[in-house]
Specification:
The strands form 6 sheets. Strands 10, 12, 13, 14, 15, 16, 17, 18, 19, 20, 21, 22, 23 and 24 form a 14-stranded antiparallel sheet that branches. A 4-stranded antiparallel sheet has the order 7-8-9-11, with no helix packed on it. The mean pLDDT is 96. It is built from 16 helices and 27 strands. The chain folds into 2 domains: 374 residues, Glycosyltransferase; 256 residues. The protein is α+β, with helices and mostly antiparallel strands. Helices cover 29% and strands 22% of the residues. The protein starts with 19 loop residues before the first helix and ends in an 11-residue tail after the last strand.
């Protein structure tokens, strides 16, 4: 069930072998998987459900809500699959999939979905308000989201679908779009859906409300934090890339340049700024990091490159962008477990319920079809004619790490030449206490392109329930409370060390000195991240754990090592595709034990997994001589070639300024065997903590 491109071209595309022809092949492969599930031409794009407990249509909801959700699912299916189908239909109006003419199928289904009384009518705004007996004038519906996918596809296929409708049919669709364009929307990235609806209507001679357009545009602009990133609601995630930096440039192209050039210039400026660093967000193979909500959208993250190409003067590096787009495409389509019954799983790779959110349905993953926007650019476009290049990865020397730190969105990402991985460290995150899902998505202390985040491990052992991958977990020994961080404040970079603070059960009711906290201080090494963290406790005794990345457990070997009091565990094994994997976790001062947790069903890559985790206890309520600093390292590589002893145990000496040599105050200087020295000092953190 994996996609295998025919006759790859390693001259034009030396890294992936993929050209525009292969992207068309990939689109056809996906469409055939979808349409092999559609028994009759009249049937909508509603796919078989594998997951039924989290996604909608939800169980045990009132009949009117269930009917509204049924309509929303129909609309998601037709419009999100249209992301893939539209550029292929534009290229080849005679295209067939599953035995159906794609042009005729979408022409029919799109019109029917907008036509009152039709069995697949999805409801305009007023209809849905009435159907759900809801009097709230601020109510929003999923259909608003999908209208944007509809207008993108209709504009792409204008000559072969939109222009072939009668005037009456066009008016039917336009009236449907107008009902959502001018009505209430969610006050974050959703505002773009209203803007694009109005832009499409204006392009085709229908009336629009300029005051509403300005309202949405100004609000969207003010989510900008600079460097090309936007705050989406509260959080920063890929919506900044696959929404703000896709819809913004398209809106400029369709409407903004002509009617609001000042606003368009600002969207353009932010897109160009994103292009300066965004390529380094991906790893040496072009892999997308599993981070933020809506991970089922996967390589839609690459669509920001296509977005920039809609602008008058694109700033994208075409060869690098294509290498990333194609690499990320194959990250998913190149796996046997990506599809179930021909459709993308509700997961990152295989079916994986821990990342699924209740606003998704079986058809939601088709949002990743936004990556196919690049097919709207013809064969002769420089995106397709340029030779693939790998940018940063081609220029880094052995052992070198490139670090990019963006204070606006609180993102720090490192490109590691030796293992080809990109590691992301985040901040400015706050979630409800107990929202494990939110922290998995946004504030693991590190996210790695080759080690997607793992949910809470399920294992038998004394630490069961108090271990997480790449997260601290605290247990109050007095009352047995288990605390997990739900807020990460950002300080930023000083002297090559990144500083952040995590609070455990953070809330606005309590002063922060009544909250358990951890000061995070870390810096990159050749194959990973080295940590010199410091606990900030008001209540003890407290037990700590800190987990490694989740390691796919497929024929894993375990080796335990020690050197001068430091301890390490090295894992060697394979991911679900058979690729070699290796991970080593090393602990130094502050930690007492290094343990293993074997888990099932919590890893996005493999059914079985292992987490190496460090463990210690701070015993005295007030004890200045107990360790404050917690020093550790996790390194990884994509081969079984042994780590050197210096890589596993990289520290030559650790110097403390405080009297008890435990990190209570003053600086901690870490002198590495390779000559690198890093000085860590937490005393200036309070002056610049950002959320």
């Amino acid at each position: 069930m994996k996609f295998e491109p025919k006759d790859p071209d390693f001259v034009k595309s030396p890294y992936t072998g993929l050209t525009r022809r292969h992207w068309i092949e990939a689109g056809e492969y996906l469409l055939n998987g979808i349409f092999n599930n559609i028994k009759h031409f009249e049937d909508p794009v509603v796919m078989p459900r594998v997951e039924t407990e989290i996604t909608y249509p939800h169980k045990n909801v009132p009949p009117d809500i269930k009917e509204a959700e049924r309509r929303a699912e129909i609309f998601e299916g037709i419009t999100r699959s249209f992301f893939i189908a539209a550029p292929l239909i534009k290229d080849n109006p005679k295209l067939q999939a599953g035995g159906y003419s794609m042009r005729e199928y979408y022409k029919s289904q799109l019109l029917r979905s907008c036509t009152k009384g039709d069995p697949v009518y999805v409801g305009d705004y007023d209809f849905l308000q009435e159907e759900t007996n809801h009097s709230d004038p601020f109510r929003c519906f999923q259909q608003t989201v999908e209208t944007c996918a509809l207008v993108l596809g209709l504009e792409e296929t204008r000559e072969v679908i939109w222009d072939t409708y009668t005037k009456e049919e066009q008016d039917t669709i336009a009236a449907f779009l107008s009902s959502f364009a001018g009505q209430n929307t969610v006050p974050q990235n959703w505002r773009f859906f209203n803007l694009l609806d109005y832009a499409f209507l204006a392009k085709h001679g229908y009336p629009v409300e300029e005051e509403v357009i300005v309202e949405h545009a100004q609000a969207l602009l003010h989510f900008s934090v600079g460097e090309g990133w936007y705050r989406d609601g509260h959080s920063f995630d890929y919506y900044s890339c696959w929404a703000f930096n896709v819809y913004g440039p398209i809106w400029c192209n369709w409407y903004g340049y002509e009617h609001f050039p000042e606003i368009a210039a600002k969207f353009e400026e932010q897109s160009h700024k994103l292009m300066k660093t965004y390529a380094d967000f991906f790893d040496a193979e072009g892999y997308t990091n599993m981070w933020g909500r809506s991970n089922v959208y996967r390589n839609a993250a690459t669509s920001a490159f296509a977005g920039n190409m809609y602008l008058k003067h694109p700033a994208v590096d075409y060869g690098r962008a294509r290498r990333i787009c194609s690499g990320s495409l194959m990250q998913f389509l190149g796996r046997e477990d990506f599809l179930v019954k021909g459709i993308p799983t509700l997961g990152f790779y295989r079916q994986f319920s821990p990342l699924v959110q209740p606003y998704s349905c079986a058809e939601s993953p088709l949002w990743f079809g936004k990556a196919f926007l690049i097919l709207n650019f013809p064969e002769e476009h420089p995106f397709w004619s340029a030779t693939e290049c790998n940018g940063t990865w081609d220029t880094l020397k052995k052992g070198e790490v490139k670090e990019t730190c963006l204070d606006g969105p609180a993102l720090c990402f490192t490109n590691h030449k030796d293992n080809g991985e990109t590691i992301l460290r985040t901040g400015k995150v706050v979630k409800q206490a107990g929202d494990d899902h939110g922290m998995w998505n946004y504030s693991k202390i590190e996210f790695n392109t080759k080690y997607p985040w793992e949910s809470t491990p399920q294992f038998d052992g004394e630490d069961c329930g108090r271990v997480e991958s790449r997260q601290y977990v605290l247990q109050d020994v007095t009352d047995q409370w288990i605390l997990k961080a739900n807020a990460t404040f950002w300080h930023g970079m000083e002297d090559n060390v990144l500083y952040r603070r995590q609070f455990f059960h953070y809330n606005l009711k309590d002063e922060t000195f009544w909250l358990q906290a951890m000061n995070l201080a870390d810096f990159p090494v050749e194959n990973g991240i080295f940590r010199v963290d410091k606990h900030r406790l008001f209540r003890r005794p407290t037990l700590f754990t800190l987990g490694s990345y989740g390691f796919p457990d497929n024929r894993t070997s375990v080796e335990k090592l020690e050197e001068n009091g430091a301890k390490a565990i090295v894992l060697k094994g394979y991911d679900a595709t058979g690729r070699e994997k290796q991970l080593a976790m090393t602990i130094y001062d502050g930690w007492k034990e290094l343990c293993l947790a074997h888990s099932t069903g919590t890893n996005p890559d493999s059914e079985h997994s292992i987490i190496v985790y460090a463990k210690t206890t701070i015993d005295k309520q007030y004890g200045g001589a107990e360790p404050y600093a917690l020093i550790s390292q996790v390194i990884t590589k994509e081969s079984h070639k042994d780590f050197t002893k210096e890589e596993i145990f990289p520290v030559k000496e650790i110097h403390y300024e405080d009297k008890f040599h435990c990190g209570a105050y003053g600086s901690i200087t870490v002198e590495m065997k390779n000559g690198m020295t890093r000085k860590v000092n937490y005393e200036s953190m309070e002056r610049k903590l950002m959320l």
